[in-house]
Amino acid sequence: MSSPPTIAETLQDAARRLREAGVPNDLLDAQTLLCFTLGRDRTWLIINYREAMAESDSEVYTQLIARRATGEPLQYITGRQEFFGLDFAVSPAVLIPRPESELIVEEVVRLGWPAPLIVDVGTGSGCLAVAIAREIPTARVIAIDIAAEALAVARQNAVSNGVAAQIEFVNGDLLGPLTTRASIIVSNPPYIAASEMDGLQREVRDWEPRGALTDEGDGLGFYRRLLRTAPAHLEPGGYLICEIGYQQAAAMRSLVESAIWDGPRFLTDLQGYERTMVVRLRQSSPASDTV
């Protein structure tokens, strides 16, 4: 009878399987899934690399590697993703939080609005709403999403991160459920054009919720609606802050009406792409006269 494989041998074989399946970061993902299986960290793996794998752990690990080899995102397999230094539960019902979305949180904090009412449109996992509530303890947040399954995940994340008392979760379409004026409206809306969906990584295209990725049009549909409806739901001088696609800044400039909005101003991500749009409602904007 052959001896059971060691941790090092198990990792090497798993990384090879992932590499052959076209999975990027094959060794890193193999390590992450082994840590998840064993309930250990990478340091433990390094120290104990000669230890034999238990048969029960090997069976579980083999199943997880098989899932990742199909393209299923690592975050959906582990059920977790870090965002703005916080731990979030994720599921196929929500978009996986990404580092570029942290620009929105940073900008809201930088604005320094005292005791703001902040509305998160299309909250998904709740990453924006929760991170903002953690960073601004005086804030009240309304998190809106059309998908009840997403709101369930967002509520869970608000509880686990200790900000459930600050956030009201509302099921609805865009700003439709909002009956008051906000200080700041934030959103990471579906901005991928339908024509671009086939070209996405399979991890995104085949696994993340399509309704959170594309408007089934040119990718600008939700921005048009937000720019049109947000003025009636913002305080004079309030802000609309949205994540945008890395090639959408020029199109957004053409959509923003100067009679209503100051801006747009764009924030760049670590790769130098303009990924966040900031516009401010003019104090005397006619579109803000009625709710």
Task: Provide tags for this entry.
291 residues; alpha/beta; Rossmann fold; 2 domains; two-stranded antiparallel ribbon; elongated
Supply the CATH architecture of the largest domain.
Answer: 3-Layer(aba) Sandwich
Strand content: 15-25%
Low-confidence stretches: none
Largest sheet: 7 strands, mixed
CATH superfamily of the largest domain: Vaccinia Virus protein VP39
Number of helical segments with 4 or more residues: 11
CATH class category of the largest domain: Alpha Beta
Provide the CATH topology of the largest domain. Answer: Rossmann fold
Shape designation:
elongated
H/E order of the elements?
Answer: HHHHHEEHEHEHEEHHEHEE
Outline the structure in words.
The chain is α/β, with parallel strands linked by helices and 291 residues long. It has two domains: 64 residues; 209 residues, Vaccinia Virus protein VP39 (Rossmann fold), CATH 3.40.50. The chain has eleven helices and nine strands. A seven-stranded mixed sheet has the order 5-4-3-6-7-9-8, with helices on both faces. Strands 1-2 form a two-stranded antiparallel sheet. Strand 4, helix 8 and strand 5 form a beta-alpha-beta unit. Helix 1 packs across helix 2 and helix 6 runs parallel beside helix 7. The longest helix has 15 residues. It starts with 6 loop residues before the first helix and ends in a 10-residue tail after the last strand. The model has no long low-confidence stretch (mean pLDDT 95).
